[in-house]
Design goal:
heterodimer, A: 139 residues, mainly alpha, 84% helix, elongated, B: 327 residues, six-stranded mixed beta sheet, 13 strands, 32% helix, 29% strand
């Protein structure tokens, strides 16, 4: 039994389980971008980039636990996994890794989305000065 | 012949519930061992302890020579386990789940899995969620068998399956035992295990009530029907190695399931004034099961009152309903 192969397969499984959440977030992001493009929502145009930056990772963080742990418990696949000769720490570790890596990826994507939506909402540049100041203040 | 499973004094207590109350069990290698018991008898708890999912409150056990509480991983490499409702990843395809599981076992897993899947005629490219219940059970069995385990543990494997699939499933267990592998089947489907099991243990309220080879059980346990001219007649006490597993009165007939009933016992009953006729025949496994699982622990107290021994090398405990005996 090759441990690196075991970890790769476990990561593959976790990634596949996260796929529906990633697709859902992508659909939400695209939907909001389209709304921004075709609609005339002046009141949300300034806040949408920030909403992207924080909203998507928050949604991901809320869903990742439910998908990687809650769903497995509900479907009892945890018990099937537990009947296989796999170290429990490997299962927990790959779930943790998949969750953190996924969250990191969503942060990057949401940052890019913020830049794009900032560009759409502000003709003077890809992101407004007010938003950059706001982020600086946070960091 | 070594033992695949041994258990001594296994106890499992949950808050407000005693699931196991001192289980002693020995499963010889190369046998099909049936673990029978009604719902809630403690079968699944016992299996969870044997497979290392749970640690017992008290007692010891070994599976394939390993202690489940210390070497659970080693045990899982050596056993195959199919639960009552196999929970597989619905989104995986049949060949995908084999490929995924193969990474946890030595080489050759995927080839044997493929052979089993072909034998069971399960479509390889179909997602698990699109399979019928029988097909899912076959996939779970193929996964459990693909590493050629020393011990296969099946917990209610055929619940919800049609008779054809059930029969096929059970017959494949006999094939395994022929090759020297051990199969532990937990079930309350008595008729189906009666055909395939070499040994049987009956669990009731967290205790092993009876453990014996199927052949010996059929030879020694009888259903005795006694016709009386008065229902209030007290029968003589059956002594020696005879054990009354259960007794029921119906009008002027008294029915008993008795272990070790012989000619001398028959003559003793027939000699009693008021006894018109004594008939005996070998009891079916279902009758033995019902005799062992009827009543509760309270019946043991009644048993003393009726002067029966209640003794049994495996802790057999008779249950009593109606009837009277001299003490």
């Amino acid at each position: 039994m090759n441990r690196s192969l075991v970890l790769r397969r476990l990561c593959w499984k976790e990634t596949r389980q996260l796929w529906p959440l990633i697709v859902m977030l992508a659909v939400i992001a695209v939907f909001l971008q389209c709304m921004l493009l075709i609609g005339n929502y002046q009141n949300i145009k300034s806040t949408l980039p920030i909403a992207f930056f924080f909203g998507l990772p928050c949604l991901f963080a809320a869903g990742v636990g439910a998908l990687l742990v809650g769903q497995e418990r509900e479907n009892r696949t945890f018990y099937w996994m537990a009947s296989l000769p796999i170290n429990k720490l490997d299962i927990i570790g790959t779930k943790y890794f998949a969750g953190v890596a996924g969250l990191g990826a969503v942060w990057i994507i949401s940052f890019l989305m913020m830049l794009i939506s900032g560009g759409l909402s502000n003709a003077s540049g890809p992101i407004s000065v007010r938003e950059i100041d706001w982020l600086h203040g946070l960091l | 012949m070594s033992d695949s499973i041994t258990a001594q004094g296994l106890e499992m207590r949950f808050p407000g519930c005693e699931a196991l109350r001192g289980i002693d069990l020995t499963v010889p290698s190369g046998s099909v061992f049936a673990l029978l018991g009604e719902n809630g008898a403690g079968k699944t708890t016992l299996i969870r302890i044997l497979t290392g999912f749970q640690s017992p409150t008290a007692g010891q056990c070994t599976v394939c020579g390993f202690d489940p509480s210390k070497d659970a991983l080693e045990i899982r490499r050596r056993i195959g386990y199919v639960s009552d409702q196999p929970a597989l990843y619905d989104w995986m395809r049949v060949d995908e789940i084999g490929w995924f599981t193969a990474s946890f076992y030595p080489e050759g897993f995927l080839e044997r899995y493929g052979e089993s899947i072909s034998h069971f005629e399960v479509p390889r490219n179909r997602k698990i969620k699109h399979l019928s219940k029988g097909q899912r059970a076959k996939v779970a069995l193929a996964l459990a068998l693909a590493h050629d385990p020393e011990l296969l543990i099946l917990d209610e494997p055929t619940s919800g399956l049609d008779p054809h699939v059930r029969r096929e499933f059970m017959e494949s267990m006999v094939d395994r035992a022929v090759t020297g592998r051990t199969v532990l089947i937990s079930s309350h489907q008595i008729s189906e295990v009666e055909r395939v099991a070499d040994m049987v243990a009956i669990i009731h309220q967290g205790k092993v009530r009876l453990m014996d080879s199927m052949i010996h059980l059929k030879e020694t346990v009888s259903e005795v029907t006694i016709s009386l001219d008065d229902p209030l007649i007290a029968l003589p006490r059956l002594t020696g190695t005879i054990e009354v597993l259960s007794e029921q009165s119906s009008g002027r007939q008294r029915r008993m399931v008795v272990r070790g009933f012989d000619q001398s016992a028959k003559e003793l009953l027939e000699a009693r004034p008021g006894v018109l006729n004594v008939r005996s025949r070998p009891a079916s496994l279902e009758e033995v099961f019902i005799a062992c699982t009827r009543g509760s622990v309270v019946a043991a107290v009644d048993d003393d009152r009726f002067g029966r021994t209640g003794k049994n090398s495996e802790g057999l405990q008779p249950s009593v309903s109606g009837g009277s005996h001299e003490s």
